[in-house]
Amino acid sequence: MIVILEPGIDKSGAKYTAVMNYLSNQAGIQVRVHEETGAQQVLTELYLVGDTKTLDKEDINALPGVERVVRISQEYRVLGRHKDDKRSTHFEYNGVTFSQDNLHIFPGLCAVDNPTHVEQMMKACQEHGLETTRMGAYKPRTSPYAFQGHGKDCLPYVFELAGKYGIKVIAMEVTCEQHVVEIQQALEQTGNPTGVMLQIGTRNTQNFELLKAVGRQQEMPVLLKRGFGITLEESLNAAEYMASEGNRKVIFALRGMKTNMGDPHRNFVDFSHVPVVKRLTRMPVCVDPSHSVGSREQSPDGLMDVFHVTAQGIVAGANMVLVDFHPAPAKALVDGPQALLMSELPYFLEDCRIAREAYEARVKNINRIRPA
Ligand code: PEP
Ligand code: MN
What we know:
Bound molecules: phosphoenolpyruvate, manganese (II) ion
Radius of gyration: 22 Å
Helix content: 25-40%
Oligomer: single chain
Structural class: alpha/beta
Number of strands: 14
């Protein structure tokens, strides 16, 4: 059960104390306080754990300071959608709104290699009206001898260049808690010229200590990649780990499943799960066409598979696209063969726009007979 308190409730005031007193007198019930700091106000939610069936919803609803009470299923308590649950499906970070109702494109480098390429990428984003990009500084690689990313050494110039070109959010993978600290320090040292969306890669989807660590910090949002060899339910529970630690700013990314059934694609594209994740949870959903497809192959119509699957994800309602670009893919240190060229960026963005328009038209069409 979730008890949603009036926005901005004073935690030292009489109303809050009365609610907490009432709840602490209920046998076998533990209360977990969850606070969310929005642009305007702080929202406080109380998660009741234990034998909540014995609780009277109406009695709690009638307490001063209580706005609403929601009974929840066991699944995804914080991030899930529950009956009569009107909690938000969006969040804001560094002036950018991420929502189940909008779309952001994050074209960028799979791995940061040098300042020139970072600058070319960010300049191109700005020229096309984008405030978001991806930049890999910490790269988890299959081989211990492969390039592992420049790590914290590249962060100052990546952040400064982001500021120079008006980039507000950079998706950046972290593989341990120390990386989060390094990012926080580098942002501070450079005067916070940009923001970072921490990315949990598919190899770490069930690294529970890492999930808890990124969940404990509540400033930066998190992009959680679906685990490549586990069920959707297991990956959604991984997202819930972060939320249960206090960070609800989580975006769920589909990036394909590891099986040779998807050959010749690098992973079996799973973007049909976009609407499923939106139905089960309140998370915006991202698709990663680059790591799903893994090549620049194209079909006879002239469209690359990366374009096709991106459009499929967007037509199904995706809210974010994480896609590899590189100014000189032949020189890329990681994943060059799947990178799109800078000259392809306007066409890619136009293809995304066409697909989004189709999605919006589809929603409008069905709502004529079945309002949402
Ligand atoms: C990436 O986005 O660079 C990446 C390594 O993705 P994944 O974790 O999905 O393989
Ligand atoms: Mn990659």
